[in-house]
Each structure stands twice: as structure tokens, then as C-alpha cells.
What we know:
Helix content is 48%, strand content 17%. The longest helix has 34 residues, at 185-218. The protein is an alpha/beta fold. This is Enoyl-CoA hydratase.
Amino acid sequence: MSLIRTASERGITTLTLDSPDNRNALSAALVAELSDALAACGKDPAVRAVVLAHTGTTFSAGADLKAPPSPYTFVDLLRQIVELPKPVVGVVDGHARAGGLGLLGACDVVLASEGADFALTEVRIGVAPAVIALTLLPKLEPRSAARYFLTGERFGTAEARVMGLVTGPLADLGQVLDGLRRASPQGLRATKRLVTARVLETFERDAEELVQLSATLFASTEAREGMTAFLERRDPAWRL
Length: 240
């Protein structure tokens, strides 16, 4: 059963994360399918832009703790979105958590419904938002990033727009897609290279260090306790 649903209309290919039973968690299988689908979009001259959407109430709950991809594989996926020669528009109509925010950070435009909410929950299971910092920190307002990276608090669409995670309301999707359809393929390719240059510099400089940090943290005693507590729906031992 496919975890990515694909549909195309007038030059726009929509890739829909379709694993609602686990809230579109980033399993090794889902990441591999999404990577393959993006590669196909990148090679297809009929594709002007890509929309990254979701089924269910959650865009993505972050890493699948039972069947996660390797940190290197996830880094490759994030970089693939950033480097794709077609604009990628992320669409959120519900919840987004942890690694799901990394996917949104890699997108060129992010549109969210008024009722959407977001959280960087890594600190609550004993790890850090290390790998997704590659796509998020170059784009987010630093004070807001520090608060939500450190506390794991939930925040809404209004704050997500102020901090730079969300571009605009979901109601703007038609207008954004119309603009992309009016743009030339060459113009989009060249312009995307301009707007992603800073993010790609971060990958070149920091990716290996952050992958190693992520691997070290996930293998730690605290992370094992945090992940076990999460799966058992209880507070971790350090909760005050």
C-alpha cells in the first residue's frame, strides 16, 4: 500500500502524505516513497511546481519512533526538497510536529489553515531538533525559534507566520498556484536557487555535525526513557 498519493492538474503535482493511522509519521518507508515521488517530479518537464499535502488531521507527527529513517536519509530528503528545480508548496490543515516542521522548513512556500498548530517536541523525549535545524534556523526569527525549540510548546498559525514558518493562509493556495503557473520554468529554477542559497550553505557547513548529534542523542539513556514514556503515554522520569 502506497504511503504517498500523487495527483496532477495543469502543471501542479500534489504529493499527499497518506499514512493517517500513524499521523503521517516519518517512517523509513514513507521517506523513501516521498523521495522517489519528488525525484520523478524533478525530472518531469510537465511539472511546474509541487504541493506537499496530507490526509487526516496531521501533516506529520515527526519521526516514526518504531521504524525511523536514518538521519542521513532524512537529511537527504530535506536537501532534495530544497534543491528540487521546482517550487514546493507545503499545505497544513491540522497538526505538525517535530520532523514534520523540518519538511515545512524545506518547502519554498507554506500555507496553513487558521486552526493548524505546530510544536517542536524533541526536547520532551530527550533529544534535540538537530537535523531539522538545517531547514528551520535559516528561516525563523531567532527569539521565537529559541523559545519553541527549547520548550516544546504548541503554537498556532498566527505565531507561525510571525516567526517565518508559515507564509500565508491556506485560502491563498489558488492564488499561489496561479502565480506559479504564470511563471516560466527557467525563471522558477533560477529564482529558487536564489532563495534557497542560504539554506544550502547551512547543509554544506553543518549537516554532518548535526547528523552525528542526532544519532548520539537518540542512542542515549535519556532518549530511551523519553521515547518509552511517549509510547507508554506517561511522563518521563525527569518530569518535575
